[in-house]
């Protein structure tokens, strides 16, 4: 029993200092250094199967209309939020001479995001949430918001 502990201790010590074990095996450090010095391998059949499977999965995803519309909507949403977060405060400072436009636009973004998510969820629950109803509701809400924003902009300009 004591001999097994002694052998285990010797193996741990030799692995820590990077020397070879009694049996001529490489330590952990030497094995890692040996692996990193090997050249990169070329693509083999298993890698080709992974790529083919990935392309098949992408084809399935891109043919799914609901997925594509959701991704495109999310891209547009992120573009608009990014544009407002970057240029909104600049317009507030330069055009409207606001003192703390950053906090104002941030607060508006947070409040509208929470209220929009909650009201959209409740509206879809009320409308028997189907995809066609969701698209109709989104179209109506967005067109009303654009009309309201244009009216407010024209009033502020006058």
UniProtKB/TrEMBL annotation:
<keyword id="KW-1015">Disulfide bond</keyword>
<feature type="transmembrane region" description="Helical">
    <location>
        <begin position="107"/>
        <end position="127"/>
    </location>
</feature>
<dbReference type="GO" id="GO:0016020">
    <property type="term" value="C:membrane"/>
</dbReference>
<keyword id="KW-0812">Transmembrane</keyword>
<dbReference type="InterPro" id="IPR004156">
    <property type="entry name" value="OATP"/>
</dbReference>
<dbReference type="InterPro" id="IPR036259">
    <property type="entry name" value="MFS_trans_sf"/>
</dbReference>
<dbReference type="Pfam" id="PF03137">
    <property type="entry name" value="OATP"/>
</dbReference>
<keyword id="KW-0813">Transport</keyword>
<feature type="region of interest" description="Disordered">
    <location>
        <begin position="1"/>
        <end position="38"/>
    </location>
</feature>
<feature type="transmembrane region" description="Helical">
    <location>
        <begin position="66"/>
        <end position="87"/>
    </location>
</feature>
<keyword id="KW-1133">Transmembrane helix</keyword>
<keyword id="KW-0472">Membrane</keyword>
<dbReference type="GO" id="GO:0055085">
    <property type="term" value="P:transmembrane transport"/>
</dbReference>
<protein>
    <submittedName>
        <fullName>Uncharacterized protein</fullName>
    </submittedName>
</protein>
<dbReference type="InterPro" id="IPR044770">
    <property type="entry name" value="MFS_spinster-like"/>
</dbReference>
<comment type="similarity">
    <text>Belongs to the major facilitator superfamily. Phosphate:H(+) symporter (TC 2.A.1.9) family.</text>
</comment>
């Amino acid at each position: 029993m004591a001999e097994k502990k002694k052998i285990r201790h010797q193996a741990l010590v030799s692995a820590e200092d990077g020397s070879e074990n009694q049996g001529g095996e490489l330590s952990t450090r030497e094995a890692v250094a040996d692996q990193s010095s090997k050249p990169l391998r070329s693509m083999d059949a298993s890698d080709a199967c992974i790529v083919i499977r990935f392309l098949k999965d992408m084809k399935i995803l891109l043919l799914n209309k609901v997925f594509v519309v959701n991704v495109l909507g999310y891209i547009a949403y992120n573009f608009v939020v990014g544009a407002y977060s970057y240029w909104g405060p600049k317009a507030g400072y330069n055009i409207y001479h606001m003192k703390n436009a950053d906090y104002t636009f941030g607060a508006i973004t947070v409040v509208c995001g929470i209220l929009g998510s909650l009201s959209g969820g409740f509206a879809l629950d009320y409308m028997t949430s189907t995809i066609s109803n969701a698209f109709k509701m989104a179209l109506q809400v967005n067109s009303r918001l654009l009309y309201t924003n244009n009216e407010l902009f024209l009033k502020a300009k006058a």
